[in-house]
Design a protein that fits this description.
Number of strands: 10
Helix content: 25-40%
Number of domains: 2
Largest sheet: 5 strands, parallel
Bound molecules: glutamic acid
Number of helices: 9
Strand content: 15-25%
Structural class: alpha/beta
CATH topology of the largest domain: Rossmann fold
Shape: elongated
Order of helices and strands: EHEHEHEHEEEHEHEHEHH
CATH architecture of the largest domain: 3-Layer(aba) Sandwich
CATH superfamily of the largest domain: HUPs
Distance between the termini: 23 Å
């Protein structure tokens, strides 16, 4: 469908397993938001973590999306094809001294946190002024201390002091792999993404991504973080917890269940196309002026 607006959205699954209902809810919300804005919708396979990626999961994800009527308006992007681009931006950040090598192990970071009274895992800035001759392991972005604020379309005003709450964060991991934060920001910027719709598990990652966007001169998209689907114990569904894969059986029942999860009433359509038509209308009414 040709786009009639400048809206560009995306769904960016990691192929660490097949989609579960939580990830399908994210696909649904980003797809329906793009359609309601008469925009463009892209799929990007975030396969930058070979130790965690499952061979063939990308194909299963794309097939399941297609079975539900969601197909990318542009060629699907795989992050493994984008290494050179990440390297180029990383080198630029390095030249500008916005990232630095860090020699700390996880154990050393936790020990320093305990000593300094910081929350466990916050990077205390140990290597900001050099590694004292130790070889660098990971590379970190030097966070600024001014609070980052944005208005999330679902969750409202968010403010975070990245330096205090996260500390300088990793952009290239100790195993040499690119960190999600760096790759996602470069890919969203290069694709001209205007709107990110994804799960609330990533809400607190957004300020880090906004700092990186500023550093590379990219505009920040609008954000909407939707509620997570939880299991009977109230735990977030996740591939790591081996949440059941979503299937293409009973597509209408699944679509209605996800629609209710997104705060609407069951549509009870006769077919998938009719479901989407009605869903897009309802979404437009509720969300398109926000
Ligand atoms: N690849 C991430 C995931 O599957 C999502 C990234 C994003 O939407 O920014 O959790």
């Amino acid at each position: 469908m040709p786009s009639r607006t400048s809206y560009v959205g995306r769904f960016a699954p990691s192929p660490t397993g097949p989609l579960h209902l939580g990830s399908l809810a994210c696909a649904m919300a980003s797809w329906v938001d793009a359609r309601a804005h008469e925009g463009t919708w892209l799929v990007r396979i975030e396969d930058i973590d070979p130790p965690r990626d499952i061979p063939g999961a990308d194909r299963l994800i794309l097939e399941l999306l297609a079975a539900y009527g969601m197909t990318s308006d542009r060629a699907v992007v795989w992050q493994h094809d984008r290494n050179e681009r990440y390297e180029e931006i990383f080198n630029d950040l390095k030249d500008r001294h916005l990232v630095y090598g860090c020699a700390c192990t996880r154990g050393e970071i936790f020990a320093a946190d305990a000593q300094l009274g910081l929350a466990r895992g916050v990077y205390p800035g140990t290597c900001r002024n050099g590694t004292q001759g130790r070889p660098p392991r990971a590379w970190r972005f030097a966070a600024t201390s001014d609070p980052v604020s944005f208005v999330d379309r679902w969750c409202g005003l968010q403010t975070q002091n990245v330096e205090k709450e996260t500390g300088d964060f990793v952009v290239r991991r100790a195993d040499g792999l690119w960190a999600y934060q760096l790759a996602v920001v470069i890919d969203d910027a290069d694709a001209g993404i205007t709107d990110v719709v994804r799960g609330q598990d990533l809400l607190d990652n957004t300020p880090r991504q906004m700092l990186l966007q500023r550093a590379i001169g990219a505009a920040s998209p609008r954000y909407m973080h939707i509620p997570l689907v939880t299991d009977a114990h109230g735990d977030k569904l996740s591939k790591q917890r081996k949440a059941a894969a979503a299937t293409s059986e009973d597509r209408l029942g699944t679509l209605d269940a996800l629609w209710v999860h997104l705060g609407f009433e069951r549509i009870g359509a006769d077919n998938v196309n009719a479901f989407w038509q009605e869903a897009i209308n309802q979404w437009k009414e509720r969300w398109c002026s926000i």
